[in-house]
Amino acid sequence: MFRLGVLSDTHGLLRPGILDRLIGVDRILHAGDVGDRTILEQLATIAPVEAVRGNTDGGALAASLPLTVTGSVEGISYRMTHRREDVGADWPRDCQLIVFGHSHRPELEWNRGCLLMNPGAIGPRRFKLPLTMAFVTVNADRLVPEILSIE
In the chain, what are the helix, strand and coil shares in percent, each to the nearest 5? Predict the structure, then answer.
């Protein structure tokens, strides 16, 4: 069993308790709008971190982050980008998990055996949307997603 912590849109704010909630995950995926390199450094004290560049990330941080990430865990392939609009039409055919952020709205959708996930946002509140993060447990060839309110 392998557990992913999935975050997006921190916008430079790592709220109290987030690191505690991530204890025990095997990898952390951050779907952009990180806001500050120290966010990634703090997350890396818990587990290895992969992150993509968001539309508000700038300067040296943006230059250090890719627009997309492709990887695999326990035989499950995944891809990540910041905006759902940037998800390629062929991605659901090519992988089992797609992670994106940007809208601050948590979302889970299955498409041809592929899980599309937006963990929502845990940074500054916007548009009266809930503050959420996500987990994905990989058990054999099964993905078990969970959206968690942090309020």
Answer: 15, 35, 45
Contacts of 16 (CB under 8 A, 6+ apart): none
Q: CA–CA distance from 141 to each of 12, 101, 119 (Å)?
A: 35, 24, 21
- Segment 103-134, tens digit of pLDDT: 999 999 999 899 999 999 999 988 889 999 99
Backbone CA torsion sign across 55, 69, 96, 17: negative
Tell me the one-letter amino acid at 119.
P
CB 40 within 8 A of CB 34: yes
Helices (H), the chain: 18-22, 37-43, 59-64, 91-94
- Does the global pTM surpass 0.85? yes
Q: Distance of CA 26 to CAs 2, 47, 50, 137, 138, Å?
A: 6, 6, 12, 10, 10
Architecture of domain 2-149: 4-Layer Sandwich (3.60)
- Residue boundaries of the structural domains of the chain: 2-149
With cut-offs at 50, 70 and 90, classify the pLDDT of residue 12: very high
DSSP 84: G
